[in-house]
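PROTOCOL LOG
Step 1. Enter all chains and additional molecules of the complex.
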Amino acid sequence: DAGVIQSPRHEVTEMGQEVTLRCKPISGHNSLFWYRQTMMRGLELLIYFNNNVPIDDSGMPEDRFSAKMPNASFSTLKIQPSEPRDSAVYFCASSVTGYGYTFGSGTRLTVV
Amino acid sequence: QKEVEQNSGPLSVPEGAIASLNCTYSDRVSQSFFWYRQYSGKSPELIMSIYSNGDKEDGRFTAQLNKASQYVSLLIRDSQPSDSATYLCAVLNSGYSTLTFGKGTMLLVSP
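Step 2. Run joint prediction.
Step 3. Record the structure below.
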């Protein structure tokens, strides 16, 4: 089992640019989550998919953020345009509904 | 707003001692609770889950749950320097299958 796979591991971009983060969940897991982690705010849920359908996107900060899950093995989180305050570590996690998550290695995003 | 509260620490213990990490939560109907360990620069790793009142033991780790007091704890016996990490408490939200995380307690185990 390769675990949850995220790419890229690190991303440095200029303010105003589009950023796309990618995630491949564990096969057989039907729930997928995008979290953001900062020192100040800890781990914050951005969006939750169940069986590829977005269920809870109340944590998405604003319209600049969007997420898709076109199939059971792939999800993207897009930020357009990016801002310096978006700098954080973004984690994707997957699970069987109702159980503990397995996290990916994360993407460290720096917007300058 | 559902909340999970943890002391940020750091909690410093000598090698071989028992480390006690605590967590309180606001959602009275929550039924599932998890402890994650996060090393610096790494992703959170699930180490314990607990669903019923009482104690659950797994090796050197014991999770304790008291739903009436809305309190969860993690005991680490015979603490090792390799246990030095941030420990995150997580609560499964009623109605959804999402976890709310505390901000974590940093544990430092000195040789």
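Step 4. Note key features.
Residues 46 and 61 of chain A are 8 Å apart (CA to CA).
Chain A touches chain B through 22 residues (CB under 8 Å).
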